[in-house]
Amino acid sequence: MESGMVSVDRWTAGSQVYFLTHLHADHLSGLTSKWSRGPLYCSRITAKLFPIKFPGFDLSLLHIVEIGQWHSVSLLSPSSGSSTAVSFMAIDAHHCPGAVMYLFRGEFGCTLYTGDFRWESTSERAQTGRTMLLKAMKDVQLDMLYLDNTYCNPTYCFPSREVAARQVLSIISSHPNHDVVIAVDTLGKENLLLYISRVLKTKIWVWPERLQTMHLLGFHDIFTTKTSVTRIRAVPRYSFNIETLEGLNTMRPTIGIMPSGLPWAPKAFRGMEKLSLESPPLLLHNRWHTGVTTSSTSSKTNGGSLSSGRHDHYIYTVPYSDHSCFPELQKFVEFVKPINIKGIVSSSACNVDPLYHFGGICRIQQASKLLCQRLRIKRSEKVGVIDMKSSFGCTSTMQLGRKKRKRQISRAAIHVSRVRLLRRERQGVKIVDTDPD
């Protein structure tokens, strides 16, 4: 797709329409209540929550995208100036309330932008999404996949959220006389809190802004802002740290639970040679278990710090993540079989370029290998002809010619478009050779 037409989770000027996958802060940079650059498409739940995040926003700019339905918008091609239709569909990303991925189709081909997503193999919602995506891509090759590569590293192999939720419940149940503090974002992990509330038959404390969000999501009798009616509190991540828990423990016995996939890859935290963990271990042959961080543990989490050299036995970390882990990413790429793939996360030290791990699945890699084989064959044939001639007396002019031909072949290898090669082979839809922003 040409630049200057569509932007997803990017809010700089220059596009004709804008798409929002979900309401997490790292996808909102540049979007403000004074937005006026163009129509903004999002899911119905996101639109419902929008006024909380952006009070005073011109809601006439919001366009709701119903999940599983094709929508269409007419845009102008920046290169030709002619009108072109872009069809798009929102599919449940199973990340946080309102989170969706977008499938785009048009003269440019077919593109899928996942945003943040979690598709466990055991999830019925994810299976519904797979069926929806399979139907939408019927008889169409996916040209470009923009993938949530937050955990695109084989180190990350954690269990489903259902299993992790049971681990959280086990920790709470084993501390019947403790207050419990659970770190959550301003949006997300609602299912974990609902599970705890249902099984333990108790309400859960949340801060006032979070309670407003819960009410908009339809949860009216489960959450409260009264600390006297429950021992379980869901607190913002930024307030979750050792110092806070130490202060709480001077008043009442309190434990903290950090549900996240982030602290679970030893390779992501270099310089932690003295990492020690209480039994059972956090990571054993890529199988996850509940563990306790000890005083010698040192790690950084999003919004809170677990400092080394402090009394850290108050905090439990559990691999409950709203992002797909590495095996799930691999299965997803195998499912959609894109020609090319790009990661949407570049700032995290934990992820790897998806092409590094999944390039063999993408057809652009297959085309690249075929192209290289053809160039090697042509190169060897031309060099063979030169060598035959040189056997009858190789002059300096012939040597220069041979070097010149080699340089020409090398330049050809650089400039031949792999996407164009694929297009000729499969005679498919037109794809812009220049990668989109």
Automatic annotation (TrEMBL):
Cellular component GO terms, alphabetical: nucleus
Keywords, in A-Z order: DNA damage, DNA recombination, DNA repair, Endonuclease, Exonuclease, Hydrolase, Nuclease, Nucleus
Record has DNA damage as a keyword: yes
Location(s) in or outside the cell: Nucleus
An example molecular function term from Gene Ontology annotations: damaged DNA binding
Domain of life of the native organism: Eukaryota
Keyword Flavoprotein: no
Gene Ontology biological process terms in this record: DNA recombination; double-strand break repair via nonhomologous end joining; interstrand cross-link repair
Domain DNA repair metallo-beta-lactamase: 222-343
Pfam families: DRMBL (PF07522)
Predominant cellular place of this UniProt entry's protein: nucleus
Family recorded in the similarity comment: Belongs to the DNA repair metallo-beta-lactamase (DRMBL) family.
Protein name as catalogued: Protein artemis
Organism, scientific name: Solanum tuberosum
Lineage per the UniProt record: Eukaryota, Viridiplantae, Streptophyta, Embryophyta, Tracheophyta
The gene coding this protein: LOC102596374
